[in-house]
Design brief:
Length: about 450
């Protein structure tokens, strides 16, 4: 075979098999389009996948997958069951080693009322946000909250909510984005864990895509876009030690706008390249996976903490999915967010140690834990390609090229639900584009 050979023609080539890429592929295959997904790794799921360590199914990034709405609709389009178990209660708060379950009623008032006399006023601002009255875009969540209370515990709660959802600190997340998510978007009210690890749902969706005629190439890296007359015409791929070219009616990018600029080789223009450097604000976090012989906390869902150094939330996966770990073990994942999480550099060793010390302080039994992995998600593999409030458009300067995923979310959105929504919008644009007369 020559150094570069032709490897077929597709209506849509999707670069990256993360949440946005697979959801876009599912929608397009369901609509009858011929689809190819390219994934550089040997597994699907991107930054919400799973690896096996010492017999434990250890999730790499996201664990809590939102139910309902666009995400669940995507699976139904291919008749793929969504293998998730919902914890009840879904979320609780742990403050001064006491559990506060807001799902029993009381909401923000119940949560904040113990710590500040301004709880009602803060609650009113959430109601105002639902009515469209939002703060100016430049005001951070910390600055917004400081107008109503100086209470350290309340500020710690809001910091850890920002960290848990957006992988950023309260002084880094715009208050407008925070309130949009928690007051308008629905704020993570229903989610579940996959008993096979998060990769289980992605493997199911990938199988559904293949059953409908879609192709997914693992260990296959897109290395270059071929562009002519303002359109992508094909994608160069490194696969099995060879370089092949696939022809594409359209391309959907799920590896982030910054990586797309590298693939396009200048075809997106200087202004777009500059926007990827100045608009996007990637966010970092620290994911700590560990297991114990004794249960640390009898809570099935996610726990958000009060005053901590870096630790923001934690979940015991074996409470709902015991098969994720070998018999006799309780498996946990804890999330921490460094300072700073956006923009500046941080000392990984010091930030990890601060996070581990939080776990020691919260749970005396943590010193006996079996450590499975500590993953710092930053740089080219960030927790978020851009923090909420700092996303780029899905459209690009090329007529048949769109982005999906967590760098092009709807304002104030987050999680896999946000990625699924970007996929739905991109699929609609693809179908409209392909329905038009195509250039010869």
């Amino acid at each position: 075979m020559s150094s570069q050979s032709q490897a077929g023609s597709y209506d849509a080539v999707i670069i990256g098999a993360g949440a946005g890429g697979l959801c876009a592929a599912a929608r397009l295959t369901a609509a009858g389009q011929r689809v190819l997904v390219l994934e550089s790794k040997n597994r699907v799921g991107g930054r919400a996948s799973t690896e096996v360590i010492d017999g434990f199914n250890v999730n790499i990034g996201a664990i809590a997958i939102e139910l309902g709405s666009t995400f669940e609709e995507t699976f139904k389009l291919l008749d793929v069951p969504l293998d998730l178990r919902e914890p009840s209660p879904a979320t609780v708060f742990r403050i001064d080693r006491k559990i506060i379950n807001v799902s029993k009623g009381g909401g923000w008032g119940l949560l904040l009322g113990t710590f500040t006399k301004q709880a009602a006023k803060i609650g009113t601002k959430f109601a105002d946000a639902r009515g469209g009255d939002l703060p100016e875009a430049k005001l951070s969540t910390k600055e917004w909250l400081a107008q109503y209370t100086k209470n350290d515990t309340v500020h710690a709660i809001f910091r850890n909510l920002c960290a848990a959802i957006f992988a950023a600190n309260a002084d880094e997340v715009p208050a407008r984005a925070f309130l949009t998510y928690f007051a308008i978007k629905g704020a993570f009210k229903r989610f579940g864990f996959c008993p096979r690890g998060t990769i289980g749902i992605w493997n199911d969706l990938a199988d559904g895509i293949r059953r409908r005629g879609g192709e997914i190439w693992l260990d296959s890296s897109a290395t270059r876009l071929h562009v002519a007359d303002g359109r992508v015409t094909g994608v160069e791929v490194e696969r099995n030690g060879e370089t092949v070219r696939v022809e594409a009616g359209v391309v959907i990018n799920n590896i982030g706008p910054r990586a797309l600029v590298e693939l396009a080789g200048g075809a997106l223009g200087d202004a777009y390249a500059e926007a990827t450097r100045t608009v996007l604000k990637p966010a970092a976090n620290i994911v700590i996976n560990f297991a114990t012989r004794e249960r640390l906390l009898d809570v099935p869902g996610l726990v958000t903490f009060g005053k901590t150094r870096r630790l923001c939330n934690m979940g015991e996966l074996t409470a709902t999915c015991p098969e994720i770990a070998p018999s006799g073990w309780y498996q946990y994942v804890a999330y921490a967010v460094p300072i700073p999480a956006i923009g500046g550099d941080f000392d990984e060793t010091a930030e990890i140690e601060a996070s581990l010390q939080d776990l020691r302080d919260e749970f005396p039994g943590f010193d006996n834990a079996k450590m499975l992995s500590v993953r710092v998600m930053r740089g080219e593999w960030p927790a978020q390609r851009s923090c909420a409030g700092y996303d780029m458009p899905q459209d690009t300067p090329l007529a048949n090229l769109w982005n999906v995923g967590d760098g092009v979310k709807d304002y104030g959105d987050g999680g896999t639900q946000a990625c699924a929504l970007t996929a739905k919008l991109a699929a609609e644009k693809v179908r409209a584009y392909l329905a038009q007369p195509q250039p010869a």
